[in-house]
């Protein structure tokens, strides 16, 4: 049984007011790279009118519910008359709402509180030519939790948000979230893997074009981390990438676990749309999405999205990565 959650709509007047305050504060706001974490935070801290307060309260209630754990918000159109400015202001509103829920990690390259991913037919063809295993929007992503590699080790961020700036597919399908509470075979797999028992993962390669068209990849990395982590009070699940190396028992178990998650009778579903923001608890559930189908031809990008990762995160494994090769803040598996 799928329970569909509906997206709430952010108010147009409040979204416009937030953009107006941001413009006043920054002076220049013509690119995504002008969205700075500290400035968004400054307006939020100073926000006596509570522009997004009602919204944030509703989202928090959903995130706290162990049987929900995800919320969706539609950013209205018409914030600005100009289409490009309108798109930017919508990203700003998505940033404000995500930041009000959980302080995001700053992108190391340009100080934005998110990472932008662009997929295009052209860069996918380039990657295919180079023979890289890659993730395209048309590939299905099974249920997983997001991870983050920091020089100190493997982390499971508490919250993840994804804002779809643009999806050039007529049938983008749905986004799914499976709260741990609703996973019927959780105990069986917890026992089979064991708690705090290391499993070897080949990281899901992220191959996407970054803001300037550069190719970002995390291919070819193997890490060790427990699937089920606990310190006696808190529980986390790290399930990201492929278990295709090491123990045959683990390889089979992880296949069975992926199947169990897909076959679980309950899950939360929400259709994917342009300008829809998904905010989810990454410490309480898995997420997945459908294959995007029926691409719209003749567009430069097939999908653009920005992704927020909370600073709050649980370390589930101390680093065993050679520090010379450790890329700080490498994020695993975008949605
Ligand atoms: Fe993900």
Describe the secondary-structure layout.
Elements: E1 2-4, E2 8-9, H1 12-26, H2 37-45, H3 53-64, E3 70-74, H4 83-101, E4 115-119, H5 121-129, E5 141-144, E6 148-150, E7 153-157, E8 159-167, E9 169-171, E10 174-179, H6 186-193, E11 198-202, E12 208-209, E13 215-216, E14 222-226, E15 228-230, E16 235-237, H7 248-263, E17 267-271, E18 276-281, E19 285-289, E20 293-295, E21 303-309, E22 313-318, E23 330-331
Parallel strand pairs: 1-17, 2-3
Antiparallel strand pairs: 3-18, 4-21, 5-19, 6-7, 6-23, 7-22, 8-18, 8-21, 9-20, 10-17, 10-19, 11-14, 12-13, 15-16
The chain binds fe (ii) ion.
Fe (ii) ion binds at residues 144, 146, 287, 333-335.
Task: Name the features.
Double-stranded beta-helix, 6-stranded mixed β-sheet, binds fe (ii) ion, alpha+beta, 26% helix, globular, 5-stranded mixed β-sheet
Output the structural class.
Answer: alpha+beta
**Architecture per CATH nomenclature, i.e. the level-2 architecture:** 4-Layer Sandwich
Structurally, how many domains make up the residues? 1
- Kindly provide the radius of gyration, computed on alpha-carbon positions and rounded to a whole number of angstroms: 19 Å
Number of strands: 23
From the 3D structure, determine the CATH topology: Double-stranded beta-helix
List SSEs in N-to-C order: EEHHHEHEHEEEEEEHEEEEEEHEEEEEEE
